Amino acid sequence: MIRVLVVDDHPVVRQGLRTFLDLQDDITVVGESADGASCVDDADRLRPDVILLDLRMPGADGVTALRGLRDNPARVLVVTSYTEPGAVLPAVRAGAAGYVYKDVDPPALAAAIRSVHAGHVLLHPDVARLLTEGDTHPGPAELTARERDVLAEVARGRSNREIARALSLSEKTVKTHVSSILGKLGVQDRTQAALHAVRTGLVDS
Amino acid sequence: MIRVLVVDDHPVVRQGLRTFLDLQDDITVVGESADGASCVDDADRLRPDVILLDLRMPGADGVTALRGLRDNPARVLVVTSYTEPGAVLPAVRAGAAGYVYKDVDPPALAAAIRSVHAGHVLLHPDVARLLTEGDTHPGPAELTARERDVLAEVARGRSNREIARALSLSEKTVKTHVSSILGKLGVQDRTQAALHAVRTGLVDS
DNA sequence: TCGTCCTTTGGACCTAGGTACACCTCCAGC
DNA sequence: GCTGGAGGTGTACCTAGGTCCAAAGGACGA
């Protein structure tokens, strides 16, 4: 029996996954978590074999949660809606055992859970391609804490001036942060950065 | 027995809703649709009492689907993730019988379906407040087809120049469109417009 | 203690984004 | 036939966004 922990911020999705997965003979859902922070505790307590993790969550994002789960023996299957290289690569590097899109049909998801539990690393073909392609040169380039603050504001549609006021900085400083954020994310402008942030779950809405 | 049609682009969510709702004594899911276009046909064919409609879908967005469903006697319960006035108001004006957030817990969702089926108009308190507040002056201000084209590009992070190339327009024209889009959506810049578009489901990712 | 990284600020500079106004064509409806 | 709206183009202009370079203080680990 494969013990599964479902992590998603939408109760409807959690309930749906639980109801469906419990119908499988060899899978049982031992718990649900609504966000990245609580899922680390839940994983310690419930000792699941596999964790279904939605990358896109408010508060602590999926990648942060993945890091918190490193000590846990559970295999993490990332279930998300997006194809962004910027989201996939850090997740896989942070220890995800699998990465599937949310638009898989449920039987395929059950199969993915079994594969991951069996020790396989499961990647969607597109994801695997991304990995092999951009493997060497670019590098992960993680954001600093301050840059994440700024990016969160950018992702809410704020202007540099507004961000400066909100964080008590000069507009120049904000520009510097934005500039290095763009560089690290590999995007051209703040709009792309905001979309990236939304996809990776850095901001709620 | 309340006949329900589930419309959502994620198979996992559809399956989840179906499994949960079928557990209710008085509710049966008679069908699922993956997008706004097919849901209109499905509704004609399956004659559901209530349609659960996700506003955020690729291709034909939720509001367009709502218009197509006007002739159908089914009551439409919009289930979505976002609070945006710009998404809520058009939906309600387009004939939604209810509007709940996706973060309702499943029992509350079942209750909402029963309420809507009983003829009630069901609005989340926040939504009702938005309605009564901004009722008179601003107006819905719908986008033209061309403006939606441009907005879709903006929401993919494209620059004006790239949009001009993609749509075979001059950059000036794109600017004009973007400008009127910003005015109609009531936002300040392209980043906010892009975020708005993502929230309302105009673009996939 | 030294080196490194993060954070902050500044100046100079260029470009993309956005506004305001005017003019054109095409097409549906009266 | 006229009218109005939508789409397209343009000019001029201003502002926000972004880059490059430089600098200084603080935290932290080797």
TrEMBL record, chains A, B:
Residues annotated as domain HTH luxR-type = 136-201
List 4-aspartylphosphate occurrences by residue: D54
Tell me the domain of life.
Bacteria
Indicate yes or no for the key word Manganese.
Answer: no
What the entry lists under CDD domains is as follows:
LuxR_C_like, REC_NarL-like
What Pfam families does the record point to? GerE (PF00196), Response_reg (PF00072)
Q: Does the keyword Mitochondrion apply?
A: no
> Which residue range or ranges hold the Response regulatory domain?
3-117
Q: Where are the transmembrane segments?
A: none
Query: Which InterPro entries has this protein been placed in?
Result: CheY-like_superfamily (IPR011006), NreC/VraR/RcsB-like_REC (IPR058245), Sig_transdc_resp-reg_C-effctor (IPR016032), Sig_transdc_resp-reg_receiver (IPR001789), Tscrpt_reg_LuxR_C (IPR000792), WalR-like (IPR039420)
Question: What is a GO molecular function of this protein?
Answer: DNA binding
Keywords of this entry = DNA-binding, Phosphoprotein
Sorted alphabetically, the Gene Ontology BP terms of this entry are: phosphorelay signal transduction system; regulation of DNA-templated transcription
Full protein name: DNA-binding NarL/FixJ family response regulator
Species assigned in the record? Actinophytocola algeriensis
